[in-house]
Amino acid sequence: MIKYFEEVGVEMETSDMSFSVSLNSGKGCEWGSRSLGGLFAQKRNILNPYFYQMIREIVKFKDDVLRYLSVCQATQHSPQLHSMSD
Questions:
Q1: Mean pLDDT score, 15-31
Q2: Any residues with CB less than 8 A from the CB of 5 and at least 6 apart, and which?
Q3: Contact by Cβ (8 Å): 31, 20
């Protein structure tokens, strides 16, 4: 992805990024990406199979994106950007 950004002239800077979610004032879903403590911010998720399915889907999405970018790089095609409604 960095190579693509360089090719299209996107300015970048080093940063420390994480992601967290809190829905319904913490009563819905709550988690963070910085540590296992954040991932299991709601202790009940340790035993929740649906929570593990969500984590698998996130990892699968990341893998799909990386694979797509590899194909684009190998075939020298620019990644196509699509909105959710496409």
A1: 72
A2: 12
A3: yes
